[in-house]
Design a protein that fits this description.
The protein has 443 residues and is α+β, with helices and mostly antiparallel strands. The chain has twelve helices and 22 strands. It has two domains: 300 residues, FAD/NAD(P)-binding domain (3-Layer(bba) Sandwich), CATH 3.50.50.60; 107 residues, no CATH class. Helix content is 30%, strand content 24%. The strands form seven sheets. Strands 1, 2, 6, 7, 8, 9 and 22 form a seven-stranded mixed beta sheet that branches. Strands 12-13-11-16 form a four-stranded antiparallel beta sheet, with helices on one face. A three-stranded antiparallel beta sheet has the order 3-5-4. The protein is globular, with a radius of gyration of 21 Å.
């Protein structure tokens, strides 16, 4: 694949490791790469770090397994994130509405500071308001990125690149094979989250989960609610509850071509639809749910929440069978015990659980895109089928993938080798040294 000639475009920066996207995967990748001794540049399209973790949601899931005995299965850089949040008084633990394991709810504004602090302390540089527009390839390698900035197009060069964009933007520009979510099987829906204040929280939680969902189902036709099993939860701020209720379509066919939330027109329509649905759910809450009588809208998510768009084809593709059999791999870089959580196009959500206490391993090979030797992926664009992705996309697992990708990138630079040629044992040793959890406790 040949790139256009961008030699006349001014060079903005160069680094050993360039990470695209500062969400849970990308921020941790940048921290791990910088801690590994590589000069590191983190590119972010918004003016703050965190991606979905600060712009859409407020709870980390995947740290703990569900079931009769909870086990902590993610560590390393993720532990530093939590300890810093605790110092700021910005997080609490709470059960998941659907029994998917203990979640860690935090104040997203504090988390923005924590992401920046840890990246800065590690020595990583961050460039905000930078949107990747193309990839500059040299043979089978990425030589640089074409980035849109407030001063126009600029080049960013690197030795190893980590695509943590969520949508596999870098991989797509680089010509890496990928599956467009929705083209072969239903894509997960989109959700605009919102927060409300002035809630009598004690009164609200006198209502059971089952009764809450029954009220939603009974009121769906009256209020035009597309989803009947949405949830709300406590936050770190008294009287403020956060929601995960709306359901927006994520896939369509236009001019005979499949499009999903990586398409700008569909994404724009989804933003408008998500906010419109919010008003329907808010009216339902105020009129039907005890405790919400005086509630007021505080904020929308910064963008509609996207669960899947592109999933790359890597050196290995994680499957539903792998997840539900709690399969372990020789090259695994993390663990996931979260159920398969499928937010399909219907009015409910499907949950399929692993064996009690079981975890699937996340192979390093799922972070290695095909046909590009110096590019890694981390986060929800990793190599997995629709079902496997619906389990392993939780933010704690994104952090585990980010730590592995960042550590692998730094090791590759140090050893002057490709991430594809890096020994899984060497990477595993580094991850163990840095506190990552690669095997179930006791194994």
């Amino acid at each position: 694949m040949h790139s256009p000639d961008y030699s006349a475009v001014p060079r903005l920066a160069a680094a050993d490791v360039v990470v695209v996207g500062s969400g849970s995967a990308g921020s941790v990748a940048a921290i791990a790469a910088a801690r590994g001794g590589a000069s590191t540049l983190l590119l972010e399209r918004y003016g703050f770090p965190g991606g979905t973790s600060t712009g859409v949601l407020d709870t980390f899931y995947g740290f703990y397994t569900p079931g009769s005995k909870s086990a902590k299965v993610v560590g390393g850089v993720a532990d530093d994130v939590i300890s810093n949040l605790e110092e700021l008084g910005g997080c609490l633990q709470r059960p998941n509405t659907y029994g998917a394991g203990t979640g860690i709810t935090y104040n997203p504004e504090y988390l923005k500071i924590v992401w920046e602090l840890l990246a800065s302390e590690a020595g990583a540089s961050t460039l905000y308001h930078a949107w990747v527009q193309d990839v500059i390839r040299s043979g089978s390698r990425v030589a640089g990125l074409l980035v849109a900035t407030k001063q126009g197009l600029r080049r960013v060069e690197g030795k190893v690149f980590v695509d943590a964009s969520g949508d596999a933007d870098v991989c797509a520009w680089a010509g890496v094979p990928f599956e467009l979510a929705g083209e072969h099987e239903p894509a997960q829906s989109l959700t605009t989250t919102f927060r409300v204040c002035n809630v009598d929280v004690a009164k609200r939680y006198l209502l059971s989960k089952d009764r809450f969902h029954a009220l939603m189902a009974e009121s769906a036709h009256e209020f035009g609610l597309p989803r009947k099993d949405g949830s709300d939860h406590r936050t770190t701020i008294p009287g403020v509850l956060a929601t995960n209720m709306t359901r927006v379509r994520s896939f369509d066919w236009r001019d005979g071509q499949p499009v999903n939330a990586s398409d700008p027109m569909l994404l724009s329509e989804a933003e408008t639809e998500g906010r419109a649905q919010t008003l329907l759910y808010l009216e339902f809450l105020k009129r039907r749910v005890p405790g919400y009588e005086s509630a007021e809208l505080v904020s929308f998510s910064n963008q509609v929440g996207v669960r899947e768009t592109r999933r790359v084809y890597g050196e290995y593709r994680l499957t539903r069978e792998d997840v539900l059999s709690a399969h372990q791999f020789d090259d695994q870089i993390g663990l996931c015990g979260a159920p398969i959580e499928d937010h399909h196009s219907g009015d409910t959500t499907t949950w399929t659980y692993l064996p009690d206490g079981g975890c699937v391993g996340i192979p390093y090979r799922t972070l290695l895109p095909q046909k590009c030797e110096n590019l890694l992926v981390a986060g929800r664009c990793f190599s997995a089928t629709h079902d496997a992705h619906a389990s392993v996309r939780s933010m704690a697992q994104c952090m585990a993938m980010g730590q592995a990708a960042g550590a692998a990138a730094a090791l590759s630079v140090k050893r002057n080798t490709s991430p594809h040629e890096l020994s899984a044992a060497a990477l595993g040793d580094r991850l163990h040294q840095d506190g990552a959890i690669l095997e179930m406790p006791g194994e």
